[in-house]
Amino acid sequence: MNSLWLVRFVDRLTPADRSLRRAKVKSKGTKPELVVRQLLFSMGYRYRLHAVAF
After folding, report:
1. Residue 17 dihedral angles phi and psi, to the nearest 5°
2. With contact defined as beta carbons under 8 Å apart, do 18 and 11 qualify?
3. CA 4 to CA 7: how far, in whole Å?
4. What is the mean pLDDT of residues 33-48?
5. Residue 17: pLDDT band with limits 50, 70, 90
6. Distance of CA 27 to the CA centre of its chain
C-alpha cells in the first residue's frame, strides 16, 4: 500500500462536536421534496435545481 494513504490527520473536534456538526447536514432528495418537484413538473413548471445566475 502506498505510504501516502497512511497519513493521519489531527482531528481538532471532539467526538461530541463532530456529532453536532454532522447532525446539521441536511439531506437532499427527500420524499416530500421529490413529490413537490414531480407535482410542479406535471403542472408544466420548468426550472433548474442548480442554476448559475449571471
Report:
1. -65, -40
2. yes
3. 6
4. 94
5. very high
6. 5
Please give the DSSP secondary-structure letter assigned to residue 27: P
Total Cβ atoms within 10 A of residue 27 = 6
Q: What share of the chain is helix, strand, coil (3-state, %, to 5)?
A: 45, 0, 55
Using alpha carbons, list the distances in angstroms from residue 19 to 9, 14, 16, 24, 25.
Answer: 18, 9, 5, 9, 10
Gap between the Cα atoms of 11 and 52, Å rounded: 34
pLDDT band at 7 (very low <50, low <70, confident <90, very high): low
Cα gap 43→22, rounded to integer Å: 36
Which three three-digit cell numbers place residue 51? Answer: 442554476
